[in-house]
Amino acid sequence: MFSGIIETVGRVRTVRSGEGGARIAIEAGGLLDGVKLGDSISINGACMTVVEFAGQVFEADVSPESLRMTNLGGLKAGDGVNLERALALGDRLGGHMVTGHIDGLGEIRGRRADGDSIWLTVAAPPEVMRYIVFKGSVAVDGISLTVAACDEVSFSIAIIPHTSEATTLTEKKDGEAVNLEADLIGKYVEKLLDPHSRARAPGDGGVSLDKLKEHGYA
């Protein structure tokens, strides 16, 4: 589990592709202090396992599925990536609950200045947009952000100067892909409201307006 608060921007050293996916080596600086083999690190929002590390560089294996679902397959030596270590029990949750499981790829569609901030518009596939709500949370390349505006096919986010300096987001050009993870809570709410869910106990009709009224919640 992650918070979407980026700890550092790492730099890709190498990307080695093979039939079974790829292995990526990233220079991460002091982020690796205390890291052990098998630990999880979010790379552009995608949860990856540390399989090797030495000094300030760690390596992670990227499966074919992750290459298809994320922008990691397009990385090359020298590219910057947003990095965050997994949360420890008791850490402050400064962003929102982020699993590191990417829901889909978005595309940068425009930007405009707004005082000291930059508004970015991101086009997103339907499987992500269904969970996007005004003032809700979304992780973009691993960054916890607030939805400032949205319509049926895209959403906008306001990037403050600190986020610009501490992440790679404002380096993105129009047309570039970004990893998107929708708010986990929205997915569970949808599941509870779906009367056809296979995960529901027999005879449980889920949450409905009638049931909420029955128990005094509506």
Topology (SSEs and partners):
Blueprint: E1 8-18, E2 21-27, E3 40-43, E4 46-54, E5 57-62, H1 64-69, E6 80-85, E7 104-114, E8 117-123, H2 126-129, E9 137-140, E10 143-150, E11 154-159, H3 161-166, E12 177-182, H4 184-193, H5 209-214
Antiparallel strand pairs: 1-2, 1-6, 2-5, 3-4, 3-6, 4-5, 7-8, 7-12, 8-11, 9-10, 9-12, 10-11
Features:
218 residues, 6-stranded antiparallel β-barrel, mainly beta, 15% helix, single chain, 5 helices
Report on the structure:
The chain has 218 residues and is mainly β. The protein has five helices and twelve strands. The chain has helices at 64-69, 126-129, 161-166, 184-193, 209-214, and strands at 8-18, 21-27, 40-43, 46-54, 57-62, 80-85, 104-114, 117-123, 137-140, 143-150, 154-159, 177-182. A six-stranded antiparallel β-barrel has the order 1-2-5-4-3-6. Strand 4 (46-54) and strand 5 form a beta hairpin. 31% of the residues are buried. Residues 198-202 have low confidence and may be disordered.
